[in-house]
Amino acid sequence: MSFDLQEPLLSDDETLALLAAVRDATPKAEQTAEGIDLTSQDRRMQAALTHAERMEPTFHLDLKKLLRRTTGAVPTVRRTPSDVATLDEVSSTVPSGAGLAVLQTREGSIALLFVSPALAMTIVERRLGAPIDSSDGIGRGALSSLDRAVLRSFVEQAVRSFGVAWCNQEDAFTVRDLVGVLDPEELGSRYEPVLRTRAFVALGNSLESEILVALTSSAVRDTMPRERQGVVVVPTADDRNRIAARLAQAEVNVVAHLGSMRSTVRAVLALAVGDVLRLEHVPDQPIDVRVGGITKMRGMPVVDHGNLAVRIVETTTST
Known about the structure:
This protein is α+β, with helices and mostly antiparallel strands. The protein folds into 2 domains: about 40-225, CheC-like (Chemotaxis protein chec, 3-Layer(aba) Sandwich); about 250-315, Surface presentation of antigens (SPOA). It has 10 helices and 10 strands. It has helices at about 10-25, 30-35, 40-70, 85-90, 115-125, 145-165, 185, 215-225, 235-250, 265-270; strands spanning about 75-85, 100-105, 110-115, 175-180, 195-205, 205-215, 255, 285-290, 295-305, 305-315. A 6-stranded antiparallel beta sheet has the order 1-5-6-3-2-4. A hairpin with a 2-residue loop joins strand 9 (about 295-305) and strand 10. The longest helix is centred in the first third of the chain and has 32 residues, at about 40-70. It is elongated. Residues about 1-5, about 25-40 and about 135-140 have low confidence and may be disordered.
């Protein structure tokens, strides 16, 4: 597929002058309100390449099952690294006789699915009851409207499998149409970036073909799962006061640590009623008072109204 080159409406100097005029005419508040990042599309496609590598094994496994159910043969599926091209490049490399499906996201963005001619015809013939002839794995020209109607069921199942692997949603993409020839006006800008993910399929001994899914950048934006990003919240003075008030009413365990000792397992097992454990603590020294396992105060053991108590004699600055 080719496109006629057209002269630009504006020269480079005129374009720069127009952009400068638009920028100067925009109020400063409006210029900074959105915070548009002109490189966001590139970063999105780079993230999509990484995401494609993670999802391809799941998609290819489902694809093998689908091909086996459809053709009755045991297929092998291998992958090649995904890449990013322009819509023009993708559409110009589609061979005659391929199964071409125009897909659409819920938001209306376009994606494509290609089934190579030999595989497309094999699937059609198999659905019509013909046996697989692996020695005759060549295309037979453009698919007829009947061929495309027969192929549609396979394509729809493949698209559902891709949606589950890509974003865990069967209906992320719908098959808008199966076409004989791609119409450039149906696809959008010829220079729009497109993510290509391929699966090379082998049936029998000689039939090697390809299934390719191409997602435009807008389709990637609509469907690729977004990474959860941490949100930094700066509390106000009122927020801090409310938090402090609630924390002040929270209950905590306060532990007075009278002392400790070290002993052997044999000595501990030999203890009997009436034995005395000698703690490694001098009676006239303060004991630790701990909150949450942290020593916050020190105090002296006393008796208060018949209960053992601690009189605080020192506070610490430890946190």
